[in-house]
Amino acid sequence: MASPRPKSPRSGPVSAKKDDKEESFWDKIGTLGRKKRIKEVQEVQEEGKNAIESPGFAANLDVPPEDYNLEENEERSMIAPKSLENPKVQELIHVLIEWINDELADQRIIVKDITEDLYDGQVLQKLLEKLTGKKLDVPEVTQSEEGQRQKLCMVLNTANRVLGSYPPYKWSVESIHSRNIVAILHLLVCLARFFRAPVRLPELVSVQIVVVTKKDGQLVHRIVKEEITRTYDDLGMRCERDAFDALFDYAPEKLAVVKKSLITFVNKHLSKVHLEVTDLDNQFHDGVFLILLLGLLEGFFVPLGNFYLTPKNYEQKVHNVAFAFELMQEIGLCKPKARPEDIVNLDLKSTLRVLYNLFSKYKALN
């Protein structure tokens, strides 16, 4: 699917002529300097090779020599090849490829290799357009490496905005374009989870990452475990359709009436602590109003140390909403169909489901 990187043209071998002049003294000095630099590069490559292949290392890596050339304190990571042979990793790759091909079947796009077919951003663009239902304002086809990087940057910026992701990201233009399979898997898993892909992602998939660092002129390595998937309660499956799906699909004109009823309900109780909701779409996404509302409905005080009153990042907001979900279950409500990430990412349908669940139980409460 993806076109190979353009290769720099190489000129053919130049044969030396017999009548060439003998090397001058300064020519010889230049030749010695080049030989010294070549020797230094070879020594660095050998040093890196020895660090990678030293005793106690789990696996020999097939790494290009240029990847050994590190500056002082520079760090580089690569996946241990044996990790790719792990059956769970292979299963995850297979599931993600099948999902992408199902999504893009109507465009006759077939992904066979998850790195070679996705690194240039072309397939990722089509996948995002299909999942979001919106056309991305990016060039359709780019052949040059610089053009591919620019396009990939635009596609990843869109993905980060849609996912509600904040730095540090587990993927980047450089990592995707260099065919880093770990970064590609992280991105695809996040997209599959966010858009509720109708697939079962294998759980607790991890890989071994080799991190090589140059310290005091020596290359040292360490092995770290990188988690790709966790345990999921919903196994990545879409929830069964409910009244809110029907409302959004077939009666959007009634949505304003539902929102007005829910705003009236929550303000009746939040007004007791001088709070007011005016924007149902946005004011519950950090979990604060949700936690305070639960305390008011059940008549208990939620210690401020249990949640972030002024959450500053994505993780703190997810913590708040997850904590609110725990409170709901403790007071006897069913576990919400939505995920905390859905609420934080401003998914209106998920927010309405959660609030309607509270409305159904407490609508008669004064």
Automatic annotation (TrEMBL):
Pfam families: CH. Residues 1-28 are annotated as: Disordered. One of its GO terms (cellular component) is focal adhesion. CDD domains: CH_PARVA_B_rpt1, CH_PARVA_B_rpt2. It comes from the Eukaryota. SMART domains: CH. GO terms for biological process: actin cytoskeleton organization; cell projection assembly; establishment or maintenance of cell polarity regulating cell shape; substrate adhesion-dependent cell spreading. Residues 90-196, 256-363 form the Calponin-homology (CH) domain. InterPro entries: CH_dom, CH_dom_sf, Parvin. PROSITE patterns: CH. The chain crosses the membrane at residues 288-309. One of its GO terms (molecular function) is actin binding. Residues 16-26 have a biased composition (Basic and acidic residues). Belongs to the parvin family. This is Calponin-homology (CH) domain-containing protein. It comes from Trichogramma brassicae.
